[in-house]
Amino acid sequence: MPEFPYSRLRRWPDVEADNLQAYDATDLLLVERALALSTDAAITGDEIAVIGDEYGAVTLALIDAGLRGIRVHQDLATGRRALERNAEELGLTGFHAHELHAELLAGARLVLLQLPKSLAELEQIADAVARWAAPDVQFVAGGRVKHMALAQNEVLAGRFDLVQAQRAERKSRLIVAGGPLPVPDEPPFPVVVQHEGFALAAFGGAFAGARIDIGTRVLLDVLGSGALRASPGAASPTVIDLGCGTGALAVSFALAHPSARVIATDRSAAAVASARATVAANGLVDRITVTHDDAASELETAGADIVLLNPPFHLGASVHTGAATRLFEAAARLLRPGGELYTVYNSSLGYRAELSRLVGATEQLHRTPKFTVTRSIRRG
Ligand SMILES: C[S@@+](CC[C@H](N)C(=O)[O-])C[C@H]1O[C@@H](n2cnc3c(N)ncnc32)[C@H](O)[C@@H]1O
Question: In the listed set 180, 215, 243, which residue is the last one of a domain according to the structure?
């Protein structure tokens, strides 16, 4: 069989650059192992679940090898679109997308995972596999050796009887787990923590867990101390929490401004599930809408009076500002002329000039050695 054309895969709509690929050596190892196991143990495509397949490399290589009915969970809206687009481009069909719920894993005998960055996310996934997959499931998790830690094996050992790290190959390593252990009655996530004034709920993969991030705290303090302009231009302003994470900014804004209509949006499914749980925990289901989307692409142009933004500054393991720029451009598109963007960022990043260029006049409202808060007024 000819080799799967990995190099034809694209990351789009995620950030693309010469040094960023749409697949890695871990994908290749996962695919090789899956093909060997599916033959040895007569595992069919509909008994395979793939989790964390960034741009679809694993899923599409398995389909290309003849396996059909594969179930897939990807956290990022961008990854989901990339998989669909790559599938279309290569003329491949035969996978079903699911959230991290029972239907993703019910009866699965082979689960493949690109190890997530956080241990909490791994804990949630390991629990889900032990809880819902078949009793004879083989759970194969892989990652780049430089990003792996023994703590990951320990998390897996909390849910599986047998956990074996394989020899590293091409700077990647697989861990194979089997023998699911009995799980507690209730899944370990979401975790809900009551803070002063509101509760935060977090699933494993959400930024900062159920804590309030320090940058978020700084922005909340600035907003709470009267930074909003006297007349935001609308009696019932439309406010967007762009890249909402667990929804701290959205919920706190909605509680402080009962007339505001708030939309919280994030490209991570874990963030969206967390924000929805946060909204419910604070009794705000009627006031806040939460959407899973890349850079709010489905929200109306020039429809917002206020955008709140604590942008990401890490992309994968390397510092890369493309992800923040994408959200500044989104804020510029979402705001009506005269609308306000409130941003908090690491002071060392000096985003002010970029915000002025992309959005409009930007002034510094607060600065600590670590964080800067700015207000940008959307130019007309
Ligand atoms: C630094 S966290 C801030 C989370 C939350 N607003 C807070 O203050 O706690 C940045 C968030 O932006 C989200 N994000 C990054 N790129 C995005 C994009 N293109 N579209 C939507 N959300 C994005 C991440 O998933 C993450 O939840």
Answer: 180
For residue 229, the model assigns a pLDDT of 77
pLDDT at 316: 47
Query: Where residue 158 sits, what CATH number does that domain have?
Result: 3.40.50.150
Predicted pLDDT at 318:
47
Quick one: angle between helices 214-224 and 248-256, nearest 10?
Answer: 20
What is the chain's length?
380
* Protein residue with least CA distance to atom 4, ligand 1: 245
Is residue 283 a part of any domain in this protein? yes
Domain that holds residue 338: 191-377
pLDDT, position 43: 97
Task: Establish whether residue 323 lines the binding site of ligand 1, counting it when its CB lies within 6 angstroms of any ligand atom.
Answer: yes
Mutate to test the pocket of ligand 1, among 75, 266, 370, 371 (most ligand atoms within 8 A of CB): 266
pLDDT of residue 228: 79
* Cα 243 to middle of ligand 1, angstroms: 3
Write out residues in the chain with pLDDT < 50, as ranges: 315-319
Output the pLDDT for position 17: 85
pLDDT of residue 317: 44
Number of domains in the chain: 2
206 domain-assigned: yes
Q: Does residue 110 contact residue 69 with C-beta atoms inside 8 Å? A: no
User: What is the spatial distance between Cα 380 and Cα 308, in angstroms, rounded to a whole number?
Assistant: 19
Centre of ligand 1 to C-alpha 362, Å, is 21
What local confidence, expressed as pLDDT, does residue 117 receive?
92
Tell me the CA–centroid distance for residue 230 and ligand 1, in Å: 28
Whether residues 157 and 294 share a domain: the answer is no
| 249 touches ligand 1 (CB under 6 Å) | yes
User: Other C-beta atoms within 10 Å of 191: how many?
Assistant: 19
Residue nearest to atom 6 of ligand 1 (CA): 244
